[in-house]
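Continuing the series of single-chain predictions for the mutant panel. This is the parent chain; the variants come on the following pages.
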Amino acid sequence: MAEFLEDSSKTLESTTVYLWRNAKVVKGGRRFSLSALVVVGDRNGSVGIGYGKAAGAPAAIEKAQKNARKSLTKVVLKDGTIPHEVTGKFCASKIKLIPAAPGTGVKAGASVRAVLEMAGVKDCMTKSLGSANQKNLVKATMLSLLQLQSKDTIAKLRGVDLGITEVEEKIEAGMRYLPQTSSTEKAKAPVNKVGQKNAKGGGGRGRGGRGRGRGGDEAQAADQQQQGGGEEAPKTEAPATDAPAAQAKPAEGETKSAE
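Parent structure:
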């Protein structure tokens, strides 16, 4: 994750690519030390790499940041991407950078991505060949960025007018499909009302609507009252029914005499 450097005159950011732990065997045992690889840049065309070694991680990162600030170099960019394809090689690592249209993003691994993002590249595709060593990949990426030249510089060297390049056509085509930001009010999302009508007559707080809350009849009456403009719905009373009189059971003696 990138961090801001406060003690610098520019607004620089720093990101740690990798940390290595080294062990040196001495007479009394082993002595451990840490080494850090750091990339520093302003995300606007300036980028540098640094390497530091110390007994602890914070000291190693601080040394690497000082070393990276000394090696800051300016890189040629074109609307968030690179002006042309370029290939860089360092030792057994080889990296190829390909310009991309706006909205593509940086398609690269962690080591190459750190250098490109600190340099200010927003849209680029990459292809790594050979060794995947972090140090070699970072240095190969830096060598490839240093080879970039602007359209005007190449036109002066050749003495001809280059016209519209392939990269400019990609950028123009990509800008058409980017979402345009407008100041109008955002459209409201639709509200899901499925099942709300059936949920009103359920009635209770218990499971499946069988709790002690108001029942279906009371809920319907309340709904009718709201729809009718506040008028109370007439209450339906159940008709009174005369319960049949309970017949007394004959005593045991009476049944015997009757027999």
